[in-house]
Amino acid sequence: MADSVTDLLTLERRGPIALLRLNRPAKRNAVNDSLVLALRDAFEQLDAEVRAVVIAGEGEHFCAGLDLGELRERDAEQGLYHSRMWHKALDAVQFGRVPVVAALHGAVVGGGLELAAAAHIRVADATAFYALPEGSRGIFVGGGGSVRVPKLIGVARMTDMMLTGRVYDAEEGERAGFAQYLVPAGHALDKALELAERLAGNAPMTNYAVTQVLPRIAEQPADHGLLTESLVAAIAQSAPEAKARVGAFLAGRAEKVRRADG
Asked: Which of 84, 89, 166, 225 would be a feasible disulfide site paired with 220, CB 3.0-4.6 Å?
């Protein structure tokens, strides 16, 4: 997929990095069905040369959630299928071929938080804030939030947010687990791209194992997880790139691990 622009989602290639931007700034990047489907298609059609993806939002916000202005009345069956459409789209983000970094600023609310939770690494700047206002609006999360968000912050915090409308600011959000990195206002995208460059330099099989296998091991019984670990470790270390990297380290050609301040 070459560099392209749609009305709702822009794609920019930066070497091995694909930068996807939600492009509805006048709506605070609120998500409608067309945008969800555009995200699904973008991840399903990534070029083979892409090694990492960054998701960001145009304007002052990452994503303010579901576009309620386009929410139409659905019966239970239609609502079920609509939710499953979101699940498929965000599964394409979380369970795609490459790691995904979300650059968060401004509103990360409702469906926007569900999207952010599908990424593997989240970088927030000082303007970010998090909320799940579904309870006050008489609805329930439908884009995978009930599965993904508790894994970040726990069931009790999510329960509180949905029942009371609690809003977390950027610093509270980092402490709670919404984001792994917190940077000054205006720097989330720069940091996300920096991290994506680092991820793109990893062995693809290792990236795949970390993003796809590690979460599943965490949900397996211990003995099943240990067996899965052994199988994936054997596959990863057998890859030619892994052998070359280990050889470079043993020959003293690879950078050693150092303290962050060293």
From this structure: 225
